[in-house]
Design a protein that fits this description.
8 helices, two-stranded antiparallel ribbon, 3-stranded antiparallel β-sheet, 13% strand, 254 residues, alpha+beta, 3 domains
Length: 254
């Protein structure tokens, strides 16, 4: 198996991947090598240990299954991007993310919480590139609690709106978030006050939207649930501005 002894499999194959015939031939070689690995796994275990051998073979199978379509008349490279695509043999947690057609990145995302007054960074989180932003807020909240820090203001990206930091916030925490520009039939906002969190209050004051009906929604269930909870809180705040007192969900006497 000289290919497996080379510095890299790609270098050992030395194929022109833009040539369909050469690509198919190289793919057949790779699949033959994977079949051979299955048969000699016991031998590999004797060389590097059972645990390392099992991990190496499992990684090879995972990459094969995500990148190659085996159900057709002939094996072929799979079209599109596999769900939860593994992009690194050495680091199994690295992931690929497509933010837009032109914005692609691989690896991990860094989430930084910075004190706007001092510039200090009290908490940092790391997630795979394709993980939603809300998945890191639990760790950040735990770091803040361990450091004895209490948030008074939170300036966040829209991607964090459905997180527990926003959804379960107390009355002393104010959320600031960059919002989409408000559009309405008349081309202007009818009130002197700004809309309550521009992202959710529509061009009609007091009417809030959430989920797929909202302009430029990310169309994710978790985000829609979080937006719905935020919209309810904003509705209470809106009614409080109308009546000058906290809104009660049950009319007096009923």
């Amino acid at each position: 198996m000289p290919q497996l002894a080379a510095s890299s499999l790609k270098a050992a194959l030395d194929a022109d991947w833009d040539d369909p015939v050469a690509r198919d031939h190289a793919l057949a070689e790779v699949l033959d090598l994977l079949d051979l690995l299955d048969r000699v796994e016991g031998f590999i275990a004797g060389q590097v240990g059972e645990q390392a051998a099992a991990a190496a073979v499992a990684t090879a199978r995972q990459v094969r299954d995500q990148d190659i379509a085996l159900t057709g008349p002939a094996s072929a490279l799979r079209r599109g991007v596999a769900k939860d695509l593994r992009i690194s043999v050495e680091d199994r947690q690295m992931r690929h993310r497509r933010k837009s057609r032109s914005a692609l990145f691989d690896g991990f995302k860094r989430h930084v919480l910075r004190d706007l007054d001092t510039g200090l960074v009290p908490a940092v989180g790391i997630t795979p590139a394709n993980a939603p932003e809300v998945s890191v807020t639990g760790d950040i909240a735990a770091d803040l609690q361990a450091a004895g820090r209490i948030l008074a203001e939170l300036h966040i990206d829209r991607a964090y709106l459905s997180s527990a930091l926003v959804r379960d916030r107390g009355p002393d925490l104010t959320i600031f978030c960059k919002a989409w520009r408000v559009r309405n039939a008349g081309g202007r906002w009818p009130l002197e006050r700004p809309p309550l969190l521009l992202l959710l209050e529509t061009s009609m004051p007091g009417v809030f939207s959430a989920g797929d009906v909202r302009h430029r929604s990310v169309k994710r269930v978790a985000s829609a649930v979080g937006e719905g909870a935020i919209a309810v809180q904003l509705l209470h705040e809106y009614l409080q501005t109308l009546h000058g007192s906290p809104h009660s969900g049950t009319p007096a006497g009923n």
